[in-house]
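Appendix C. Worked example: Sulfotransferase family protein
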Amino acid sequence: MIDILRTVREKLKYLPARLFNFHNDGDNKDIFIFTSPRSGSTWLMELIASQDNIKYVNEPLHINRHKGLLTDINPNWVEIYSGQDRKRKFCNFFNRIISEELFVGQQKFKEIHKGQFDYFTNRRVFKILRGKDLINVFEEKFEIQVVYLLRHPIAVALSLMKEDLEDRVNHFLANKDYKEQFLHDDLIEFSRSILKNGSRFEIKILQWCLENLPSLKFLNNKNWIVISYEEMVVEEEKILRELYKELELENLDKLYSQVKIPSRTTDEKNQKFINDSTNEIINKEFLIKKWDNVVSQIQKEKAFAILDEFGIDIYQLGQFTINKKSEFFIN
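Step 2, the predicted output written as structure tokens:
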């Protein structure tokens, strides 16, 4: 009975997306944003969705999207991160969304009330925080453009700790396919040691590594658009123009207008600081460096010792932005 009620609730929640949005796929590919939690993905999704022809699909792999009887994916993190047959289930799930059979994570009544509802669209932008090990699978299955968004692991770790979000390390270590493809025995033992003996901070750094290891070290990234949160903050205009060009978006002015609107997950204090135009340059630098005084030098060294163990060099000790000479860009 509970599942039936949840199903009805979810169908009612996204009823506007089903009834009032008229979607006909255009010539351009749907956009799949892949990233880690607390990396600026809501901001990026809303930027892209500011285009009149693009509708958003927000966190389709969040467990809340699978409560009730709408999908065959169990609404728990074990299923999302390490469930058997997750590849087939995920592909079937995304196919149902793309074929306009299933409506989750999309426009609701509040968009109509605010006058922000997109009635006619021909493209989608997906924000996906899980399943990065399957990016190439999704590329083979669907006609998509991948945008891979990165943020400094220390900044992500601190944000996760602040939000008190559950550790996911155990889920990666329970995924047989993940371990066979991306980890050797020494890394598995190293990860278990950190999980058992490390601080909360070190465990969050480890989680960032496990989340991003497949995409940074193993997958084919030649067709991806790669940007960082730090670039979005400090080089805002440059990134907007690159997104406009590379994603073949329709309206550059809409992008410029949208950056003045805080995302639904932006901290109010940070947004007030950003909007103080008299200190714009200083503010932007502050936003990407503000964690630097929160952690000790020893913590920074421990964090990068974990990255080194995984052979990840996309961020380096003492640097706040991505390493353009990383092996990731050579592969």
